[in-house]
Amino acid sequence: MTSPLGIKNPMSEFIQDAPRLGNQYDDDTLLRSYLRWRLPAKMLAEVEPDLRRLGHRAATDILALGEEAEASPPRHVPYDAWGKRVDRIETSDAWHELDRISATEGIVATAYERAHGVHSRIDQFARLYLFAPSSALYSCPLAMTDGAARFLEVHGDETTRPVFAHLTSRDPRQFWTSGQWMTERTGGSDVGGTSTMARCESGNDYRLYGLKWFTSATTSQVAMTLARIEGAPVGGSGLSVFLITLRDRDGLLRNIRVDRLKDKLGTRALPTAELTLEGTPARLVGGTGEGVRKIATLFNVTRVYNAVAAVAGMRRAIALATDYARHRVAFGKPLIEHPLHVETLAEMGLQFRAAFLLAFRVVELLGKEECGEATESELHLLRFLIPVAKLYTAKRAIALASEVIESFGGAGYVEDTGIPRLLRDAQVLSIWEGTTNVLSLDTLRAMDRVDALGAWTGDVRRRLGAARAADLNPSAERVVSAVQRIEDYATRASRSGKEFQQTGARSFAYAIARTEAATLLIEHAHSSRDRPAIVAAQRWCARHLAPLVEGDELHRADSAHLAESDHQT
Ligand code: MFK
Questions:
Q1: Which of 60, 156, 171, 197 suits 190 as a labelling partner, its CA being 20 to 30 A distant?
Q2: What is the pLDDT of residue 11?
Q3: Considering the chain, what is the average pLDDT of its residues?
Q4: CB burial class (10 A; 0-12, 13-18, 19+) of residue 153?
Q5: Confidence grade of residue 1 (pLDDT, cut at 50, 70, 90)
Q6: Which residue, of 167, 193, 214, is where some domain finishes?
Q7: Do both 109 and 141 map to the same domain?
């Protein structure tokens, strides 16, 4: 370009290259290394072509559909042209196509076919991991569908078997998704306060009356929800679980009014609605009462989805940032040649590795549990590590998305680059399916009646003992010390009472997450003997084993001052 004065300015011709994505399976060295480590070679040879194909689609047609769905958000049509209440939720063609693809790719079905026994969940979650970051959050209905399928598998009967078959089908004409309607106006955390009422019609057939404040994926064919049968006691134990078939043969909602769609920070392609149940027909599943305990079967699956979706989002953000850094020139050379930028990318890579291994650790345990092959100790570990993995990966995904935005400079802050979406969509991960604090307290709950902590410390020590290597031993020693600190802390906390425990619960959950991740990084490095894996284990153990919060009276009083919550009114 030449200025009016005739001076040629080379900088004005500088155009940035948009970041590009390659095959998301081939490019993901950690995923491939992990699968080589954890899967039998024969199984990997069988599933790898599917994963590679999906990795290609995640960077091509699925990515394009996700972008199209994001650009055409859902619309609520309350009335038809003649004034009849219809409550249609219109979604884009791309959203429907993502539904069909998720069926044919077996994103849910693979888990229930169990073609590879205990390893089937690894195969299935690897598919979700590739699909999720391109899918405009179609992973959300799939999470609830999988949770509902597991709930029906455990608690259902012959009348719910056809629904289970739909939820786990690979045939797009047969495939159904399920919603999970737990949140009411009283909040998404305190589910025991549910006020939806269930009136019996006959046998297990009921009608529901109430208001559901957040219902994701309202376009699903069925939904699982909680309600209190008339006369049942207050609290979570007085609730029961119900299956709703949303529409009649004409496609109209069955006594469900859509009050409005939510206007959300992110997840914009996902129809999230407020609904009023006005005598909605519903089927009681799993018997009366103990609804919170029963529906935990469902939300423990969706929490694993959350963890895998979080690490998938981290990996996508890193892929974009790394490609950009290779092309974006500043101060005379590509960003990737600037030592401080490399350091920033390396720290992101380290955070991602730790979070990835933690998420897939619970995937492995879930697979064992579902195949009836988990030991009692592994069942305790699964219960203990699900909230830990969910809360930790969610927080890391948000922090990493923010860092990646910054690594794009101003371009990362501009909507039409698509980069801000990384953060908007990540932010929900620490909110839905249980907030960080609710899940930190759930980690304590998991230790209530069984020695889950003892199961975990024993497991970590045993695994570290089996992963000895000269270049990893100093790291392993640090982890052994961290385990001891956690044990001592837990003893002090339980002697000091509930308030101490609850005050420190978040730091406790983080310490478990980081120590479990450290163990996994060491095991992975020990098995792969791969230089990045060794460095990751060493760096993680040197820097990231977390301090614990002593929640004693003085600490709590000081916190109250800082939080300004000590004002007497
Ligand atoms: C891509 C990823 C997409 C993800 C999909 C997103 C879709 C989002 C749509 C949503 O619905 S978001 C809303 C999600 N809401 C939650 O996740 C609920 C968060 N709140 C909690 O988890 C609370 O901790 C809880 C509601 C469970 C507290 O309720 P209570 O009634 O105070 O619990 P209580 O009395 O401690 O426990 C009742 C029973 O449940 C106990 O068993 P017992 O009856 O035998 O004593 C508990 O042990 C059991 N329980 C609780 N949590 C459990 C559990 N059992 C197993 N696993 C758990 N996690």
A1: 156
A2: 58
A3: 95
A4: middle
A5: very low
A6: 167
A7: yes
Same domain assignment for residues 46 and 159? yes
Nearest CA to ligand 1 atom 27: 292
> Among the three residues 167, 195, 222, which one is the final residue of a domain in this structure?
167
Tokens of 414: 């501009």
Ligand 1: does its nearest atom lie under 6 Å from the Cβ of 144?
yes
279 part of a folded domain:
yes
Give the ligand 1 atom nearest the CA of 305: 2
Burial 451-471 (b: 16+ CB within 10 A, else e): ebbebbbebbbebbeebeeee
| C-beta of 188 in contact with ligand 1 (< 6 A) | yes
The answer as to whether 10 is a domain residue is no
Whether 187 and 96 map to the same domain: the answer is no
Has residue 414 been placed in a domain?
Answer: no
Q: Is the dihedral of CA 301, 448, 235, 563 positive or negative?
A: negative
| Residue 562, pLDDT score | 78
- pLDDT beyond 60 at 512: yes
134 lines ligand 1 (CB under 6 A): no
74-107: per-residue pLDDT in tens? 999 999 999 999 999 999 999 999 999 999 999 9
Distance CA 64, CA 205 (A): 43
Structural domain boundaries enclosing 96: 29-167
Is residue 229 domain-resident?
yes
* Closest atom of ligand 1 to CA, residue 446: 48
Strand 222-229 and strand 178-181: pairing?
Answer: parallel
Q: Are residues 156 and 58 in the same domain?
A: yes
Testing ligand 1's pocket by substitution, the residue of 292, 445, 449 carrying the most ligand atoms inside 8 A of its CB is 292
Three-state SS at 471? coil
Q: What is the pLDDT of residues 109-129, one digit of tens each?
A: 999 999 999 999 999 999 999
Cβ(306) to ligand 1 under 6 A?
yes
For residue 474, the CA-to-ligand 1 centroid distance in Å is: 39
CA of 296 to the centre of ligand 1 (A): 5
pLDDT confidence of residue 547: 79
pLDDT of residue 569: 44
Ligand 1 atom closest to Cα of 190? Answer: 26
Number of domains the chain contains:
3
Within this chain, do residues 151 and 207 fall inside the same structural domain, yes or no? no
Given this model, what pLDDT does residue 567 score?
57
Check pocket membership of 189 for ligand 1, CB cut-off 6 A: yes
